[in-house]
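Reopening this one. Same input as before:
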Amino acid sequence: MNTLRSRIVGGGPRRGVPALLLGLTTTLVLTSCGNGGGEANGKLDVVASTDMWANVAEAVAGDRAEVEAIIGDNEADPHSYESTPRDAARIDRADLVVYNGGGYDSFVAQILSGDNEAPPSVEAFSAAREQDQHDHDTAENHADSGHHEHDHDHSGNEHVWYEPSSVQRVAERISEHLGQLRPQHSAEFDRAAAELGTRLDEVEQRIDDIEQRHGGTEVLTTAPIADLLLDRAGLDDVTPRSFVRSVESGNDPAAATVAEMQDLVDSRRPAVLVHNPQTASSLTERIRTRAENNGIPVVEMPETLPEGQDYTQWISGRVSALERALAESPNQ
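Same output, byte for byte:
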C-alpha cells in the first residue's frame, strides 16, 4: 500500500500579505481549479473527512489521485469539528468526497447538502449498513439451509472503520466511483480494492481467533469507539449504558453512574479497559488510572491514524493490542 500523501486542509494567510493581492490570488486559484481540481496534472482530486478514510481512498486510487484529509490531527475530535470556508471550497472542487457519515463528521454532509452541484461522494456509514443487510440476508439463507452465521446489528454505531469488512465495502464503493470518473483505469481500481480486501480478510481471521479464545469475556470502555470490533470479537461490554449515553452527549455522568463504573473496575471483573484518548476527560483519565492500579490492561482505540501508518497497519495493530491485553489479563 502507498504511504499516505494526504495533506491537512486548513490554515490561514501569512501576515503582511496585502488584502487586495490575497483576494486576487484566492480568486485565481479557485477559478483555475474549479470542479475536478486534479485535472491539471491528470490526477483525480479526492477529499476525505479524516485521514482514516483518506488512507483507504489512497489505497484504492494509488497514483491516479491526489488525496487530502480535512482532519488529520490525532488530538482532534471529528464529532465536534467546525468546518471553514476553505474546507467547503476544497469539497466543492473535489472529483470525489469520502466521509464517514452517521452523524460522525456532519460538517461534510452539511457542505454537500448546500451545494447544488455537489461532487459524487461515498458515505462509509451507508456502505456499512448495506453490508449489514447483506450479512443479515446471508445469515437467513444459511439458517434456512441448516447453517449458522454471525448476524450483528450495527445500524446505530458510526465508528465503522473498526469493522474491516465494512471498510472493504467502502473501498469497493470508492473503486466504483473512481472507475466511473476514469473508465480506462477501472480494472486497476478494482484490483487495488481487492488487494486491500485480502489484507483485511487476514485481520478478520485474527478477530475470529480472538472470539474463539476469549468469546464472552467481559470488557469495559470509556467511550463507544470500538464497539464494532468488540462485538465482532464476541466480547461482552459491561459498560453501564447510562455512562455511554453521557459520554456520547458530552455530559457528565450522574454520580451513581460514576460509582457503578468505579465498582466494576474495583471488582476486577473486566479483563480489559478500552480507552479513546481523543475524547479523554478528567473522569475517563481517572477511570483509566484506577484500572491500571487494579491490574486491568488498558487498550487505546483512537479515531485518527498515527503518523507513518496506513489503515491496514493501524487496524492490525489495534487487534494485536487487544489480543495481547486479553492474553495478559489476570482476569482471563
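So the earlier flakiness isn't reproducible anymore. For the record, Strands lie at 44-50, 65-71, 96-99, 121-123, 218-221, 236-237, 272-275, 298-300.
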